[in-house]
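Q: Convert this sequence to structure tokens.
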Amino acid sequence: MSSELKAPMPGKVTQILVNVGDQVNQDDEMIIIEAMKMEMPICAPSSGTVKEIKAQEGESVQGEAVLAVIE
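A:
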């Protein structure tokens, strides 16, 4: 079963802390976005392997946009 890492609000992706194939645990920081002049870490919703990263550093994303997929 896979789970999606989603942006909680619109913002700009400033850092991607994981790569495809990395193992992550629930609540590990995966991506940092800047929103409302604050940096916000986006954490893994579940443990597993990073299957896909759909965001790029410097990209602006909308709220609820899928940033990564964990399997």
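The chain has a mean pLDDT of 96.
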